[in-house]
Amino acid sequence: xxxxxxxxxxxxxxxxxxxxxxxxxxxxxxxxxxxxxxxxxxxxxxxxxxxxxxxxxxxxxxxxxxxxxxxxxxxxxxxxxxxxxxxxxxxxxxxxxxxxxxxxxxxxxxxxxxxxxxxxxxxxxxxxxxxxxxxxxxxxxxxxxxxxxxxxxxxxxxxxxxxxxxxxxxxxxxxxxxxxxxxxxxxxxxxxxxxxxxxxxxxxxxx
Length: 207
Fold this sequence. Notes:
The protein has about 210 residues and is an all-alpha fold. The chain has ten helices and no strands. The protein has a single domain, classed as Orthogonal Bundle (Tetracycline Repressor, domain 2). It holds the Pfam family TetR_N. It comes from Parasedimentitalea marina. GO terms for molecular function: DNA binding.
């Protein structure tokens, strides 16, 4: 029986495989261990394939991060723009997104910290991190503004949104590092309880 020919990937699929392999390599080997050799070895391809699609390791990692960040921002916007439900319910859905298996598994935090470490020596990657934060900040401001209006409380949504974002990022990071300390449902409830207390305190102080 003749051997079935292996289907040849098109250029877009090859490029996508390299981007995913870069993220997987960061999670597996860390920023110091993830190099062209490791990425290509795990894919069983020659280093020449990587340099065919990318100018070098830095450009590969920058694009790999940007793609991951864009997907994340798109998921945030999908939650925030769902105006068929209340701002409160959208915010609870946002909490659920943050602590979903997809965004809080060990591989994700490994990849994220790897990108962060690389951003300290790759200026363009650091700029990409800053851009992502600004997009997050704008999205949070929109949702917090809707929540403040919905609750009819007098709180400046901009600093409120920034602090909420920083708070949530910190809780997410700790949850990823120590997943067995607090279960996913409990941590979402605690985040909401904190938010309720904050709104009550700030709202009362401005009356």
